[in-house]
Amino acid sequence: MNLNQLRYASATAAEASFTKAAERCHVTQPTLSNGIAQLEEELGGALFDRTTRKVNLTAFGKDVLPLIDAVLQSQGELQARAKAFFDPQHQLLRIGLSPLIDMRLLTQVIAPYRTEFPDVDVFFKECFLDDLDARLEKGQIDVMLCPFLPHEPTARSTFSTEIYTEELRYLPARSSAMTQVDEGAVLLSQIADDTFILSYDGCGLANATRSLFSSADLQLKEYSGHTMSYHVMQEWADLGIGSTILPGSRISREFRDKTCRVMLAPQHPALIRIDALWNRAATYPKHISAFHQHLIERAPSLVRGAAAA
């Protein structure tokens, strides 16, 4: 396999169209289709269901797509590091983030910084929390964005600041008694008897869900299986395997009308908090220190403005 084949597969998954993916990759459609076919042959299974109207990922495709994207992201990181090494004047800002982060909101938060520092190359690296912690400690990223977990204290060497909070939404299992929810909201205590599908622990959502139930003195009933895909969590709920709780930004469009807000009490929505962290003992270049100050001083108002828009 080669990187072009991986790019073709990633673009096709994003566009749900061979034609649009070929345009995105600046190749002909036969070139893209042949590259994907060669990749599928080497991997041993089809990545896409091909229909006349739309191209969808197969179950196998959904399973391996995160790995394909991780390889492509690592290539981008390698290129950025090499450029920074051989060009000392090149300014690089490396942001590590949990898969839970709302990238649309983050893009709006950092837009004013990009305007003020147009020569800074902003590089994003999506990782699980253990990897983010290790990268921050080794100086391989300049800031990490992840869920705040109240039962996991921040290291003394790390500075943290809140960036935004997001409402959590409940998607009931098809077989759940709460399948029909009135007024778009449900109390956490009303759904405590459900069995919940959790994500793999690496992104922070599973621990955030456990903390949510613990804070309300409720016992969380966990489904024995796990998935690394937020979309699969929703598909499993729709199949009746179990209910699930996700931030609103991670709810797929096809399931949004089936979800409702989670309330700890009337007028008290359940929230997940996202923090930015960096090493307080490190000496950062001016453009990185400026970004840290941007997050502290401007991010909260930018988030409020985005929410009001």
UniProtKB/TrEMBL annotation:
<keyword id="KW-0804">Transcription</keyword>
<dbReference type="InterPro" id="IPR000847">
    <property type="entry name" value="LysR_HTH_N"/>
</dbReference>
<keyword id="KW-0238">DNA-binding</keyword>
<protein>
    <submittedName>
        <fullName>LysR family transcriptional regulator</fullName>
    </submittedName>
</protein>
<keyword id="KW-0805">Transcription regulation</keyword>
<dbReference type="GO" id="GO:0003700">
    <property type="term" value="F:DNA-binding transcription factor activity"/>
</dbReference>
<dbReference type="InterPro" id="IPR036390">
    <property type="entry name" value="WH_DNA-bd_sf"/>
</dbReference>
<dbReference type="InterPro" id="IPR050950">
    <property type="entry name" value="HTH-type_LysR_regulators"/>
</dbReference>
<feature type="domain" description="HTH lysR-type">
    <location>
        <begin position="1"/>
        <end position="58"/>
    </location>
</feature>
<dbReference type="Pfam" id="PF00126">
    <property type="entry name" value="HTH_1"/>
</dbReference>
<dbReference type="InterPro" id="IPR005119">
    <property type="entry name" value="LysR_subst-bd"/>
</dbReference>
<dbReference type="GO" id="GO:0005829">
    <property type="term" value="C:cytosol"/>
</dbReference>
<dbReference type="GO" id="GO:0003677">
    <property type="term" value="F:DNA binding"/>
</dbReference>
<dbReference type="Pfam" id="PF03466">
    <property type="entry name" value="LysR_substrate"/>
</dbReference>
<comment type="similarity">
    <text>Belongs to the LysR transcriptional regulatory family.</text>
</comment>
<dbReference type="InterPro" id="IPR036388">
    <property type="entry name" value="WH-like_DNA-bd_sf"/>
</dbReference>
